[in-house]
Amino acid sequence: MQSLLNKKIVLGISGGIAAYKAPELARQLIQEGASVQVVMTEAAQQFVTPVTMQALTGNPVYTSQWDSSIASNMAHIELSRSADAILIAPASADLMAKLSLGLADDLLSTLCLARDCPLLLSPAMNKQMWEHAATQRSAQRLNTDGVAILGPASGFQACGEVGMGRMLEPVEITEQVIAFFQKKSLAGKKVLITAGPTFEAIDPVRGITNHSSGKMGFAIARAAVEAGAEVYLIAGPCDLETPLEATGKITRINVVSAKEMHAATLAAADCDVFFAVAAVADWGIAKPAKEKIKRQGKAAPSIEFIANPDILLDVAKAVKMKGSKPYPYCVGFAAESTDLEAHASDKRQRKGIPMIVGNIGPDTFASDFNQLLVIDETGSKKIPQAEKLQLARQLIGLVAKKI
Ligand code: CTP
């Protein structure tokens, strides 16, 4: 799936050591379907060459407003007229200061002043420069002017220091650019999601779990952040990275057992939408052993199970009213081996929830793809085979209409 198909992006590169990441960023934007037009400041060319950027993007690279080879010699207007966004990465402290004041003394700054499309900046600088009152003032002003500021991140810096000011990685910038273009159907809403498996300990080294990869729940979390929501992701044991973490719009709480997931979820249940995507163990171990159960000289142990709490049922029971609308709007998931529609409909009734989503599969757990059966009060609707992120975006679209 290419999430930036038909998008025209002007990629501005200003002077800073993080410019070495710009070729990789251009490559990723193109991989997502965007066409990329590069504009470089004079300082940027000290770190990466226009030839590199031209070879990667397949487009001429602009470096000066005095270029007589451009037919109309109005590159500063032409370039932004046809663009869907200008993305500057890295954005230096100097460039941010310039843009915040509306200065236009080279092609990139002139282009930004003359633009009629959104501007996104990914700052990169030494931590003292980032923390300086002047830079913070620039960032604040640009933010007020509607410029999207992506990052920066904290970490190891080229100057040898550790702190705030590192440019986001190309993959994070690309994800945020993709998010920027998604419809903001959940702006201002709080979304709670359970994802992944749970793990029920038998002793300190053994336990019972299931095949859930967490991919669908994490895809829904990403799609919800893209749609403008503030997201709480309660994750069972899985090694997936938190999506769009650098936006600061997602809080991840890692849990292990169903009991822990139950407690963490109920504590965050004051939300607008709840997606119960986790494959929660129905039974826990009654008395997990404190020490490892030794095999030597013993017969196979018998394990006593106890019922785990039903997280979705408990959230659904605690639904409150906001005007005429109940909240949170609860969405359950069902993975069945037979009669998906009948079992899922029955679960929807039993748990007293407005919507349930059946995993049609065939391989629903580890795969990046799935197809879904969405059942609500109006009946059932199939969402055909697609990548989980694409399915998640469609699901978010459906749910956004309900709340
Ligand atoms: N669920 C939950 N807590 C549990 C069990 C399930 O929140 N203890 C949620 C799942 O996240 C999912 C939905 O309930 O959204 C259905 O899960 P499933 O395991 O299919 O339902 P069960 O009620 O366990 O039904 P059964 O095992 O009989 O199929």
Can you give a write-up of this model?
The chain is of the alpha/beta class. The protein folds into two domains: 8-181, 3-Layer(aba) Sandwich (Rossmann fold), CATH 3.40.50.1950; 190-400, Rossmann fold (3-Layer(aba) Sandwich), CATH 3.40.50.10300. 31% of the residues lie in helices and 26% in strands. The protein has helices at residues 22-31, 50-57, 75-81, 93-101, 107-113, 127-131, 133-144, 170-181, 215-226, 258-267, 311-317, 340-351, 388-400; strands at 8-13, 35-40, 85-91, 119-123, 148-149, 153-156, 162-166, 190-195, 200-203, 206-208, 230-235, 250-254, 273-276, 283-285, 305-307, 320-322, 325-327, 329-334, 355-359, 369-376, 379-387. The strands form six sheets. An eight-stranded mixed beta sheet has the order 12-11-8-13-18-19-20-21, with helices on both faces. Strands 2-1-3-4-5 form a five-stranded parallel beta sheet, sandwiched between helices. A hairpin with a 5-residue loop joins strand 6 and strand 7 (162-166). The chain starts with 7 loop residues before the first strand and ends with a helix. 44% of the residues are buried. Cytidine-5'-triphosphate is lined by residues 194, 258, 276, 278, 280, 282, 308, 310-312, 332-334, 347.
What is the distance, rounded to the nearest whole angstrom, between the alpha carbons of the first and last residues?
28 Å
CATH-defined superfamily of the largest domain: CoaB-like
β-sheet strand percentage:
25-35%
- Outline: elongated
- The structural domain count equals 2
Mean pLDDT: 94
Number of helices: 13
Given this structure, which CATH class of the largest domain is correct? Alpha Beta
Biggest β-sheet: strands ordered side by side in the sheet: 12-11-8-13-18-19-20-21
- Residue share in helix: 25-40%
CATH architecture of the largest domain: 3-Layer(aba) Sandwich
Main sheet attributes: strand count, strand direction, barrel closure: 8 strands, mixed
Low-confidence stretches: none
Give a list of the ligands: cytidine-5'-triphosphate
Class from helix and strand fractions: alpha/beta
Determine the CATH topology of the largest domain: Rossmann fold
- The total of beta strands comes to 21
**Could you tell me the radius of gyration in angstroms?**
25 Å
